[in-house]
Amino acid sequence: MTAPLRTVSLAARRRFNVLGPALVLVLMLPVAVGVGSTLNAEGFERYRSTWLDASGWSVFGRSLGFGATAACWALAFAWPVAAWSSRLGAGARYTVLALAALPIVLPGSLLAVGWVMALGRDGVVANGLGIDKPWLTIYDKPVAAAAIGLRYFGLAALPMAIELRRLRLRSGFDHAYGLPGWSRWWWLTARPVLPAAVAGFVLVLVFAINDHIMASMFLVQTYGTQVLVALNAMLDARLAMVRCMPMVLGGLVVSYAVARRLRGASVGETHVVIDGESRGGFASAWGALSVMTLALGAPLVALAVRAGSARAVLAAFGEVSDEFQTTAVTLAIAVPITLAAGLALARAWRSDERAGRFALAALLVVNLVLPGSVLALGTLRLFEAGLLATWRDTAVPLAFALVARFTPLAALLLFAVGRRESATRRDAAKAFGLRAWAIARHIDWPAQRFRLAAVALVVVLAGATELEMAVLLTPAGDTTLGVRLYTMIHTAPDALVSAVALAYALALAGVLIAAGAAVTMHRHNGAPRG
Amino acid sequence: MAELIVRNLNHRYGERATVRDVDLSLRSGRVHALIGPTGAGKSTLMALVAGVVAPASGTVEERLQAGDESNGAARLGVVFQPAGLWEHMTAAQHLRLVLKPTGLGRSAREARVAHYLERLGLVALRDRVPAKLSSGQRQRLAIARAMVVEPRWLLLDEPLAHLDGSARNELLGLLRELLAGCGAGVLLITHLPGEAMAIADELSVMIDGRVVQTGEPEHVYRQPTDLEVARLLGGASELTGEVRGGVLMIAGVEALSGVSGPDGRRTLIVRAEDLAFTPDAQGPAEVRACRFTGGAYVLRVDVAGASVSVRSDRPIEPGTQGRVNWVN
Predict the structure, then answer these.
(1) H-helix or E-strand containing A191?
(2) Among A45, A106, A525, B300, whose CB has the most other CB atoms within 10 angstroms?
(3) Residues A97, A158 contacting (CB under 8 angstroms)
């Protein structure tokens, strides 16, 4: 036998993916810097003065109680939506859940202005009924909590809808066992959905507590207002941070729990299921439609009534053109970076072995669950000194905070939408010797561009409507649209505030309608032809 | 002749060892089948050989001689399981894309695409995306994509998976024809013995991450190293007892006669086609069930506390007493 001419090694080399952990570390910087700023003598003094005093606990207790009330409302609103959506086909189900989530991506200030116009002391409802001293106003805490519950009920509806759908697919023949109606509902529906309901409750609780924009506009004193007072009136960033700490600890616990759930998230699974019976849909459909109409319709109708005319709304676009520009510039910086980082993290997460997934998932969720004010306070401190200080009074700090806040969202969405995708698609390309650029151009981009656009839209909406960080980070006189709306309610006539809010809502609706049209066209044109 | 040598290959998925100390070799022009139960680590081994998964330890090397590297040929062609087709591309685009790294000119590439579309019966389907193809057509596209690069090594992971009887037989015939003429060294992964026996020049059996036996297909079938290998290649039973003068005694009962080989305590692995049942009212064996399997019957026979399958040309009533003889 002839001696071999040469020997070539073919085995792939094991490479440690440093990009994922490195990105997470950068994204965690604001939280680390913010919390770190309290870990010194001055910080300890603030801890002592806040938490060894009844006032600190009283504010925290009030936040918790208010958040829990809002979460209870949200569960009640979420149930019919989850029940109805679980009975629908895929397209209609996603539409209903997307509509339920819509109030979350509308700015808190917009919804709050709408509710104030509807249920304020001289709101549309009171005026319409001719009541001088209305007995039901948005400034009553349970009503304010209900309004916040109507913003976040989509968060509770999602896990319950998933669980209900699973039950429906699995238990189509349960009625054959002859159990009485209530017993069947309790043992075969309510009990199995309980963990999902608890998860939904906790999620809404966290988001409701951290939403200090709506709470402060409804004049509810939660920790959020204390943070604003500490930072703006007392010029004490450490004290502001210390007042966030219970929410930081709570957020870490929630992150841990969510990450444990995400750890088991598998890649490339498909299930073959047999749909079960579909009965009693009318009540849940009626309930769901009522909730969704109330959540969006009430504030928007009140705004329309108060704005007076279409001309006033058109004029409002001119009133806030500078704020539009600031918002657009900030998003132009933040969104591409968020998407690129989200893609890199989603890829790292997909390729990571199960052992590594947990740490990455836990860190990813932290920035999404912690109060926005914590990220903002950390970002403020980051941009106080050194090279970064030159950007302090620009759109860059807010853009950076938006990247830190929403990269986890982008990564989770990109991971979720790519879950069903077979990993062998890329493996095949690699095995055939295609280079990384060719794989990106010919395989990844055509297959993923639509998903990427959809996630970009979510990030744009989330960034455009974010307020908790924007309130703290936008330079004076150069604010975003949401912040302007938040501040002008105290300084401008109701008609103008309503017109601006409606203009804001119309701009967002325009983005959503364009996205919907794109989806329709994609489905129409993208269908493979034989 | 080029040779692909896998040495001491190991892979872990978290805490679980999926591939353990695997040695294997492929030679150009020969088909090496790797057979094993689901979860044995076959597909992971293929991914390691294809270089898309990194091993914990071990090497995959190819030894080349002058003339082994021809222009326009790729190192690897792979059929994955699942096929890993690119859903946004037409059949022809699949073939064009994988030809790009080969360095062939445009016209040569187009000629190659046309040739393989024709060989695999995909000419009429060249402008269809995978979603518009049937299961069999998708598998043929996956095979065409692997072969169009005229690779030195062809790795086929369950190329006939998800196909029903007639489509499977049709594609099996086509695959045998294509492999005979391609000159590549082929690693064929399957869990079906029939598929492996029909195509392979060499057969390896993989169980629980290890390659437990390698050899010519008939040798592995006739001389399995243990019961697990024997069962994997076709229904087999195990009988343990004392052999005396060609008779296997179990608990003092004559369980099986016609046994070749030395006397002493032995464990025999027997298949239905190795055994025959002779009715005898005084015999120690009893037929418990009789099943028609197409062309023949398979009896389940209890003898001396053990249960064996026995092939029969005619049906025999359950409850019939008799004797079991070794016939091969």
Answers:
(1) helix A191-210
(2) A106
(3) yes
Side-chain half-sphere CA neighbours of B301 within 13 A: 34
CATH numbers and ranges of domains, chain B = 3-229 (3.40.50.300), 235-326 (no CATH)
How many angstroms separate the CA atoms of B286 and B307, rounded?
10
Residues 6+ apart with CB under 8 A from B178: B119, B143, B147
- Which option is the CATH number for A19-262+279-524: 3.40.50.2300, 1.10.10.10, 1.10.3720.10, 3.40.50.300? 1.10.3720.10
pLDDT of B290: 94
What torsion, rounded to 10 degrees, do the Cα atoms A512, A515, A516, A520 define? 170
Residues of B in contact with A10 (CB under 8 A): 4, 49, 51, 60-62, 75
**Whole-structure pTM over 0.90, yes or no?**
no
Whole-number Å distance between alpha carbons of A165 and A171: 10
| Exposure string for B123-161, b = 16+ CB within 10 A, e = fewer | eebbebbbebbeebbbbbbbbbbbbbbbbbbbbbbbbbb
Interface-testing mutation among B88, B89, B93, B189, with chain A (most A C-beta atoms within 10 A): B88
Residues of A with CB under 8 A from a CB of B: 1-2, 4-15, 353-355, 422, 424-425, 427-435, 438, 442-443, 446-447, 528-530
Q: What is the mean pLDDT of chain B?
A: 88
Pairwise CA distance, residues B66 & B61, whole Å: 16
> Does the pLDDT value for residue A75 go beyond 50?
yes
What Rg value do the Cα atoms of chain A yield, rounded? 25
How many beta carbons lie within 10 A of that of residue A131, not counting itself?
15
Q: What is the pLDDT of residue A177?
A: 58
Residues ≥6 apart with Cβ < 8 Å to A15: B54
pLDDT classification of B199: cutoffs 50, 70, 90: confident
Residues in CB range of A181: below 8 A, 6 or more apart: none
Residues 6+ apart with CB under 8 A from B83: A424, A428, B130, B138, B139, B141, B142
Whether the predicted pLDDT of B140 surpasses 70: yes
Q: Supply the angle between the helices A90-105 and A54-85 in degrees, to the nearest 10.
A: 160
**CA A25 to each of CA A20, A30, A37, A87: distance values in angstroms, whole numbers, following the listed order:** 9, 10, 17, 42
Q: Are residues A12 and B55, on separate chains, in Cβ contact within 8 Å?
A: yes
Distance CA B234, CA B192 (A): 10
Token pair belonging to B183: 């000159």
Tokens representing residue A444 in the block: 């990844």
- Enumerate the H helices of A219-297 as residue ranges: 223-228, 237-263, 281-292
Tell me the pLDDT tens digit for each residue of A419-435: 666 667 778 888 888 88
Give me the interface pTM, i.e. the ipTM. Answer: 0.73
Token pair 């001293």 is found at A133
pLDDT tens-place string over residues A143-191: 999 999 999 999 999 889 988 887 766 544 455 555 566 776 777 677 7
What pLDDT score does B202 carry?
94
Q: Single out the residue of A27, A50, A26 nearest to residue A38, CA to CA.
A: A50
Cβ contact, residue pair B60, A9, below 8 Å? yes
